[in-house]
Amino acid sequence: MKNGITHLYIPGPTNVPDRVRRAMNVPMQDQRSPDMPDLTLGLFRDLKTAFRNGSGRVFMFPSSGTGTWEAAIQNTLSPGDKVLMARFGQFSGLWVEMAKRLGLDVEAVEVEWGKGVPLDAYERIIAADAAHEIRGVFVTHNETATGVTSDIAGVRRLLDAHGHPALLFVDGVSSIASIDFRQDEWGVDLAVAGSQKGFMLPAGLSFLSVSEKALAANRDNRPKMARSYFGFAEQIAMNDQGYFPYTPPTQFFHGLRVSLDMLFEEGLENVFARHHRLAEGVRRGIAGLGLKLVAAGPEWYSDTVSAITVPEGVDANQVLRIAYERYRTSFGGGLARLNGKVFRIGHLGDLNEVMCLGALAAAEIALCDAGAKIVPGAGVAAANAYYREALAKQRDDG
Ligand code: PLP
Fold this sequence. Notes:
Layout: E1 7-9, H1 18-24, H2 36-51, E2 57-61, H3 65-74, E3 82-87, H4 90-101, E4 105-110, H5 119-128, E5 134-140, E6 142-143, E7 148-149, H6 152-161, E8 167-171, E9 190-194, E10 206-210, H7 212-220, H8 232-239, H9 250-266, H10 268-288, E11 292-293, E12 305-309, H11 316-327, E13 329-333, E14 342-346, H12 353-369, H13 378-396
Parallel strand pairs: 1-13, 3-4, 3-5, 5-8, 8-9
Antiparallel strand pairs: 2-10, 6-7, 9-10, 11-12, 12-14, 13-14
Helix pairs in contact: 1-9, 2-9, 5-6, 9-10, 10-12, 10-13, 11-12, 12-13
Bound molecules: pyridoxal-5'-phosphate.
């Protein structure tokens, strides 16, 4: 099939809106020009709004999200520091492995894949740490491998309830700018996000939004972790003037300007509501096909990605291959232990109802070709009914 467009339903990189792509198509420019701060200072300011970070600051690093995981750790912790983490999917697991490699003393709670941050286990461990040896508590807000969203506010509540001073680290790579995230209100000290998901840009830029407390930890506690490229001090000295300590990706900045404008024009609350509606339609569609999500229950459902278990006897990798080769549609694969058992529909970024109906239609046709005994059309029909009802309600509510 060579005609028409290729359909991208992976949970990042997401579709880059034409408006953003056009904004990035500009000639190279002098990154030290006197007018560069006119662009960059506004980006720093508006990123704070996107993170709902009133008092801290946001760093922009020319790396993918993984680099910014590292930046968060290196700038605030020392080798041997005790940290509390949880592994409930590929990405939360990779952050655990990174923390170990960087020399942290990691207590990693193992959680069944399909659930998220274990508040009860975290509470037990925090309550037992009367000496406040734990310096950092880590949470992956949205586990992209399993389609599970965790309760960050709940982690803040338990830290506060025990008067525990640990820094709160959050991976928001597949949540921030798509689903509700409140850095100040939830007392998040270091929040990591990437350009290629909710921010609707290509991969290659990432953001680290930090609280005053994280900045103070960087300054006063003199973290001993070796750092150079990602060092806060070097960034701050230049960023305050609107510049960078190395050659920044200026095209990205033009794209980011437009993606932030688009998010604010729609309104962040409306962006979150749209993601919820689109995700709920996909979930209804999956249920309509008689298939199950990896997420263990509604309290874990992710509004940015659904991980779907294929029926017994069907190879999820074959579904992916067929979708791509026969129907020019990309879905996300099952990662690590979910490989071959799961495919994922990314429903985040620049997306609408009909695109989600298209994703379900492509899933149905590929599943049928791969031998799944489903009723073609049942998923689309269920999502169709939900979208019509949800949009009618939205019109009525004015
Ligand atoms: N964290 C989460 C939740 C992710 O989904 C990803 C990538 O998909 C990462 C971290 C790693 O980010 P990157 O691939 O931008 O390095």
